[in-house]
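Hi support team,

I'm opening this ticket because the web form for multi-chain structure prediction keeps timing out on my end. I have pasted the exact lines I submitted so you can reproduce it. The total is 476 residues across two entries, so I didn't expect it to be a heavy job. Is there a limit I'm missing, or should I split the entries? Thanks in advance, R.K.
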Amino acid sequence: MTGINGYIRMSEIESFFKSAFSVDNVIFGFDGSDLKVLLIQRGAAPFKGKWALPGDLVYPNENLDTAAERVLEQLTGLRDVYLEQVKAFGAVNRHPLGRVITIAYYSLIKISDFLVTPASFAQSASWHAVSEVGELAFDHNEILDTCLKSLKRKVRRAPVGFELLPPKFTLTELQQLYEAILDDKLDKRNFRKKILSMNLLLDLNELQEGVAHRPAKLYQFDRDTYEAFVAKGFSFDL
Amino acid sequence: MTGINGYIRMSEIESFFKSAFSVDNVIFGFDGSDLKVLLIQRGAAPFKGKWALPGDLVYPNENLDTAAERVLEQLTGLRDVYLEQVKAFGAVNRHPLGRVITIAYYSLIKISDFLVTPASFAQSASWHAVSEVGELAFDHNEILDTCLKSLKRKVRRAPVGFELLPPKFTLTELQQLYEAILDDKLDKRNFRKKILSMNLLLDLNELQEGVAHRPAKLYQFDRDTYEAFVAKGFSFDL
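Hello R.K., no limit was hit. The queue was backed up. Here is the completed structure from your submission:
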């Protein structure tokens, strides 16, 4: 087998058409204190009983994005959720059944939107704190790490939170989200000064209700500013 | 074929192992005025005679990054060049010979380093101004556009130029590189003020030689600052 770009002889080409590919979804959520990831427990070999990222082989007539959306919907019942392709993982021996490359996607969702759909395999799905994830099936630890790094880079370059926080939130909740993603404590005064200077938040002139401590002010994202920052990017030097 | 994550029956799994995958490299260069991309003219079907991105099917026992490096080396003779994976493209009908998904990489190289290696297929390779690329084979226009967008985002978030400019360069040359990538005119005074304030450049206390106009000062990148910015990112609001 020699050559490149069509110089391979047709008689040799069949040996290349023996691979499969899959999608794997890294679905992040936030419960108010921890950054979490949705994992499933495998019910069949290979890696039976191991925790794994939700994923599946891509059907021969299915586009990649469609496959990632299908896996997410089968697992959570959620449609029209933002999924971003992060990277293809294709180490030769990453799958025991043959050559399978996988395309990793990540997604941010509100944990409260997550519904177990009893008819699906999702009974075995559950949220795990990212910091406490153990050994996963396949190369899924590597995939999770890559997506987590991508998310950490993202929070410094574009706003996040819209997909992860409730519609109304306090500055403390927003800071906790950033701290959970960055796995780092942030200076409260500095964080507030920076985030408020961006005109990213609308002060709702409302206070929290039903809390034991002194109620804090509630904010929501200014959708226009938020989307402008997503498109343009910024540097949030935390 | 039902199920997910190993719930597919083994008797059905063979139907998934009928795909191939390839790598395609978007190799950008800069000739002092235009941003260019290295294309090859296809010598065999499909798309015989059409210009295309250099790429190849991945061998069954070859890792993805290795395949991308192999294609680049076969084409240019260059090794140890930075290649970044950008995206997997997997539309169902993107390849006439069967289901082939391709993983796109991009690379930045100095055009002067490019050597046609006569023993390879590279005789048919040449540099094309990105702004003048016509219809390419397969979905290669989409792949080129995606990599170009990625490069445009990159220049706003991290320094570029180290891989594209000669070791010593003038501020005008650096500005021309940015203008070529962004496909936009930049204000000279504003550009210089911003780039000099970053401590990214070392003033060599040398002037250009052998130029007809008044010789300009020569600079080189401060490697430490450059790499710190690459790692940390910045917002270069041009």
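A quick check on our side: Chain B touches chain A through 57 residues (CB under 8 Å). Let us know if the file doesn't open in your viewer.
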